[in-house]
Amino acid sequence: MKKILICSHWMEIGGAERALLGLLYSIDYSKYQVDLYLCRHTGEFMSLLPKEVNLLPEDKKAASIAIPAKDALKKGCWDIVIGRILGKIKTSQYLKKHKETQNCVAVEYSNKYTYKRVAPINPEVTYDLLISFLEPHYIAVNKAKAKKKVAWMHTDYSFVSMDTKEAYNIWNQYDKIAAISKDCWIAFAKKFPQLENKLFLMNNILHPELIRQQATEFEVDKEMPKGDEIRILSMGRYCYAKNFDNVPDICRRIREKGFNIKWYLIGYGGDEALILDKIKECQMEKYVIMLGKKANPYPYIKSCDIYVQPSRYEGNSVTVHEAQMLGKPVVITKYPTSASQLEDGVDGVIVPVDNVGCAEGITKLLSNPAYLEELKENCRLNDYSNCTEVEKLYRFMED
Question: Which of 164, 210, 237, 301 lies 20 to 30 Å from 217, alpha-carbon distance?
């Protein structure tokens, strides 16, 4: 039986984590033994791991890489804290030298100067395939033995500031790099042209039975009352990429056109205070409702009238496909990878990313109930699971 090791950071709520669940549920466990290594055994999705997966023990040092430094010190991981401090110093030097203000390189340097302290992963085993599904990619490739190694690339690299020399050194240690959309492939290849021969397309895998079953687990009428309002839903981390800070203004513009909408936001993150300020500024307190973090978002998707992803940029939004899988009309903004998400006018609509254009696009859709029903029907007819994508990994092991 072939042995696969999959490495990731944790199982907290997020699109990439849901895509990891999709991958885990699609593997044929009669032919493949799967070990899962998580830096931290935390997150709302831990209970959803398939029973066939062998969860490896948590390593104290790996679990301390992304927690508050004081907590890492309490666990006795002073060497991890020193590595993180060194990473911050190197980050500051890089940003100053290159006259950049973005701090995207911070995680990269932190991982570089901490991974050496982490214990080897199952050192007595040489795996047939190693998959580093999420950062830190340093750990998987340096701490486990495998015949073949694949790293997942989840984001649009045209929006990511990084030390490309350092990033190249780690990506180049993998035999293959999985890009979750063609647009992600193109952006990555522009930044790392010498690595393009390692790229292959690997669409996010979703588990339709699990999603549909979870969508019926409870009712959400108290949080999303069913009344005269049109219920719009958006999901994602409260961060710059998701563009939720502009939702209050977009909502206000749609309501000014005479449409009785309420816009619900599910998520969490550092921009929560900013979004609340924008809600107050636009006087949308009654109409833009922040529902917070939800371990099971599917009953909320099932109950909404329209799903909107108003992002500034995306890799390949898992929630868009989940909404389509549940038969919802979907609106996304024209971020660089949007064309890979849906077929505009067939199973969703792409609107401009600016507030005026976005509001006009949603208003136009709301004005045409027949078109909304057509979008719903097209979504019901499509298969968004991508379950056969796992066969690419099987073929790679056999080559």
Answer: 237
In sequence order, the β-bridge partners of residue 289 are: 264
pLDDT at residue 32, as a whole number: 97
Question: What is the percent of the chain with per-residue pLDDT over 90, rounded to a whole number?
Answer: 77
348 φ, ψ to 5°? 165, 175
- Token pair listed for 117: 């302290």
Q: Which of 301, 320, 321, 306 is nearest to 262 (CA)?
A: 306
Taking domain 217-381, whether its CATH number is 2.60.120.330 is answered by no
User: Distance between CA 301 and CA 218 in Å, rounded?
Assistant: 12
Type of residue found at 212: R
Q: What is the DSSP string of 144-169?
A: SEESSEEEEE-S-GGG----HHHHHH
Kindly state the helix (H) or strand (E) to which residue 308 belongs, with its residue range: strand 306-309
CATH topology of domain 2-59+119-206+387-398: Rossmann fold (3.40.50)
* Letter string b/e over residues 64-92, b meaning 16 or more CB atoms within 10 A of that residue's CB: bbbbeeeebeeeebeebbebbeebeebbe
Q: DSSP per residue over 241-306, as a string?
A: GGTGGGHHHHHHHHHHTT--EEEEEE--STTHHHHHHHHHHTT-TTTEEEEE--S--HHHHHH-SE
Q: Check for a shared fold between 2-59+119-206+387-398 and 217-381.
A: yes
Count CB neighbours of 166 within 10 A. 16
pLDDT in tens, 213-271: 999 999 999 999 988 999 999 999 999 999 999 999 999 999 999 999 999 999 999 99
Q: Are 208 and 322 in contact (CB under 8 A)?
A: no
- Contact yes or no for 161/99 (Cβ under 8 A): no
